[in-house]
Amino acid sequence: MDFANLAAQLNAGTILPEGIVIITLMAVLIIDLALGRASERWIGYVAIGGLLASIFALYLQWDSANPIGFSGGFNADDLSIVFRGIVALSSTVTVLMSIRYIEQSGTALAEFIGILLTATLGGMILSGANELVTIFIALESLSISSYLLTGYTKRDPRSNEAALKYLLIGASSTAVFLYGVSLLYGLSGGKTQLTAIELGITNANLTQSLGLVIALVFVIAGVGFKISAAPFHQWTPDVYEGAPTPVIAFLSVGSKAAGFALALRLLTTVFPLVAEEWKFVFTALAVLSMVLGNVVALAQTSMKRMLAYSSIAQAGFVMIGLIAGTEAGYASMVFYMLVYLFMNLCGFTCVILFSLRTGTDQIAEYSGLYQKDPLLTLGLSLSLLSLGGIPPLAGFFGKIYLFWAGWQAGLYWLVLLGLVTSVISIYYYIRVVKMMVVKEPQEMSDAIKNYPEINWKLPGFRPLQIGLITTLIATSLLGVLSNPIFTLANNSVTHTPMLQAVTAQKAQVTIAKIHEQQEL
C-alpha cells in the first residue's frame, strides 16, 4: 500500500481537535518542568487557550465531506462534533474554576491540569469512537484520569475515600462493560467496527440470541455507570461530596456528555434490531433516576450532595430523548446537554466561590447570602432555577423540548412522571434560593456573618469571576435566545447518517404497522 492510500485511510485530520489537546497537554507539562512553581500563575491560561483552539477546530470540521478516520475507527460526524465541543467547553470552564481552588489546597496546578486534559482527551475521543478497541481505550483514559482527579487533594481524607469508592465501583463497571463488548466481538465473528458488528450479527441470524441480550445488558450497565443513572449511581453522592469541587463539575457535564454520546452510537448502530428491549431497560433507568434523584435530594443538607442527586435526576430527563428514538428526541438530548453545560457549571462555580470564602458547603450556611454577595446569590439562584425548569431560563426550554419529543413518540406516562418529578425538584432548588434571599439580617448564618470582603483582585479569583459571569449570561440568555442552539442541535442530528438511518428505519416500521392495521 502506497503512502497516499494509507493517508487517505487514516484521514488524520478528523482528530485535529484532539491533536490540539495533546499538544496543549505536552506544553503544560514541559512548561511546568522548565519553570516549576513560577509557571503556575499563567499555566492555566495556556490550557484554556489550547481548549479554545480545539473548539475552533471542531467548528471548522462541521459538515465535513469525509468524517470517517482511521479506517473506520473514528467518526467525526456532526453529532460527535457537538458532544466533543461540550466536553472541551466543560473542561475550559473547569480550568477557570480550578486555579484558585487548587492553589488554596496546596497541590500542584500543572499536574491537575495535565490529568484534566487527559480526561478531556478521553471524553472527546469516546464521543466519536466507532470501534471497540478505540472505545475501550478512550473510556479508560477518561475513567482513570477521573479517579486520579477525585483523589487529587491527598491531604483530605474525604477525597481519598471518594477516590477509593470511585475506583472500586468504576473498575467493576469497566469489567462488566468489557465483558459485554467481548461478547459482541465473538457474536459478530471477530469484528470490532460497530457497523461491521451489526452486520455480522444480522448475517449470522443472532438477533434474538441469549448472548446478544446479555451483551446488551452488560453494555447498558457500563454506560449507566458513566452517566450516573440509577441504580448505577451509588458512587455519585459520595464522590461529589468528597472530591475537589472543580472535578465534580467536570464529571457532571463532560463525563456525562461522553457517556450519552457512547450510548447513542452503540445502541443505534449495534442494537437496532433489539431496540424495543434496550428502550424498555432505559425506560426503567429513567424512571428510577427521576424518582430517586429528586426525592432523595429533598433530604440533603450538603449543597454538593444535593447537586449529586440533581445530576442523577437530570440524567433521567435526558434519557427521555434517547427512548423516544426520533429526530426530535435525539435533538432534544443534544439541546439539553448544551444548556445543562452552562447552568450546571454556573452553579458549581458559585459553590466553589462560597466554599473558598467560607470553608463550608452546607445549605444552611447560605442563609442571608444576598446581604453580603449579590452577584454570587444571583448566579446560584438563576442556575438552580434553570435546573428546576423555571421559565424563561434555558433549563425550561430544554425540558419542554425533551417532554415534547417524548410526547410525540407516545411516551405519555414517562413525560407525565418527568413533569411531576420536575415539580418536586423545584421545591429543593427554591428552598436554597429562599434561604439566600428572603432571610432577615438577624437570621444570617455564622458563615455569612463572618463573610470576608469581596476582592476579585486576589490571585486566582479573576478566572472564577470570568467563569461565573460567562456561564451566568449563557444560562440567562440561552432560554430567550435559544434559536441558535436549537438549530445546532437539530442540524447535528439531521446531518448525521447514523441517526438518519435509524429514524428512517423506524418510520418504515411505523408505516408497515399502519398498513397492517388498515388491512385488518
Automatic annotation (TrEMBL):
Compartment(s) where it occurs, according to its Swiss-Prot or TrEMBL record: Cellular thylakoid membrane; Endomembrane system; Membrane
Organism: Dulcicalothrix desertica PCC 7102
Subunit structure of this chain's protein: NDH-1 can be composed of about 15 different subunits; different subcomplexes with different compositions have been identified which probably have different functions.
Protein name: NAD(P)H-quinone oxidoreductase subunit 2
Keywords, sorted A to Z: Membrane, NAD, NADP, Plastoquinone, Quinone, Thylakoid, Translocase, Transmembrane, Transmembrane helix, Transport
Record carries keyword Lyase: no
Catalytic activity: a plastoquinone + NADH + (n+1) H(+)(in) = a plastoquinol + NAD(+) + n H(+)(out); a plastoquinone + NADPH + (n+1) H(+)(in) = a plastoquinol + NADP(+) + n H(+)(out)
Name of the gene encoding the protein in the UniProt record: ndhB
All residue ranges annotated as the NAD(P)H-quinone oxidoreductase subunit 2 N-terminal domain in the record: 12-99
Transmembrane regions: 15-35, 42-61, 81-102, 109-126, 164-186, 206-227, 280-299, 306-324, 330-354, 375-404, 410-430, 466-489
Biological role: NDH-1 shuttles electrons from NAD(P)H, via FMN and iron-sulfur (Fe-S) centers, to quinones in the respiratory chain. The immediate electron acceptor for the enzyme in this species is believed to be plastoquinone. Couples the redox reaction to proton translocation (for every two electrons transferred, four hydrogen ions are translocated across the cytoplasmic membrane), and thus conserves the redox energy in a proton gradient. NDH-1 shuttles electrons from an unknown electron donor, via FMN and iron-sulfur (Fe-S) centers, to quinones in the respiratory and/or the photosynthetic chain. The immediate electron acceptor for the enzyme in this species is believed to be plastoquinone. Couples the redox reaction to proton translocation, and thus conserves the redox energy in a proton gradient. Cyanobacterial NDH-1 also plays a role in inorganic carbon-concentration.
InterPro entries: NADH-Q_OxRdtase_suN/2, ND/Mrp_TM, Ndh2_N
Enzyme Commission identifier(s): 7.1.1.-
Pfam families linked: Ndh2_N, Proton_antipo_M
One Gene Ontology term from the biological process aspect of the record: ATP synthesis coupled electron transport
Keyword NADP: yes
Family: Belongs to the complex I subunit 2 family.
Membrane topology, as annotated: Multi-pass membrane protein
Residue ranges occupied by any NADH:quinone oxidoreductase/Mrp antiporter transmembrane domain in the UniProt entry: 129-425
